[in-house]
Structure formats: structure tokens, C-alpha cells
Amino acid sequence: MAKKLPIANSIRRLRFEAAEMTQQLLAEKVGVTRQTILAIEAARYSPTLELAFKIAEVFDKELGEVFQYLPSQDDSK
Q1: pTM for this entry
Q2: What is the CATH code for 7-66?
């Protein structure tokens, strides 16, 4: 089982709020594959900063409304 990354996102909810946009349509809008969107939604892949901004732009949201950083307690400095 792949380890989940400390970056959560609201993509799935935003897709459904956007007339139930499919992963495929979102992928086409931002220039990636459906599998990439699937992996990002499942927190198995962190998007590049550019891709994160593109996804936020599709939904007309600020980056922080789409992606959230959730550091683990083991990451203390």
C-alpha cells in the first residue's frame, strides 16, 4: 500500500460541485492524464506547483482552498 502524502486536497468535492466534472475532463483542462488526477485526489502524488495552480484556476479557487499541507507530528523541527 502506498504511503499517503502530507498534502490533502478538495479536488473530488470541487469536481462534484462543478456539475460533477469527471477526472478526465479536469485532466484535459490542466494537461495531464486521468491517472494523474486520480493519484493526486488519493494523496499518492504531489502535483508540481504549476499543476496545483492550474487545478485551482479551473475551479476559480485560491491554492489554499484546494490543497492543504498536513505535517505529521514526526516532522517537528
Answers
A1: 0.86
A2: 1.10.260.40
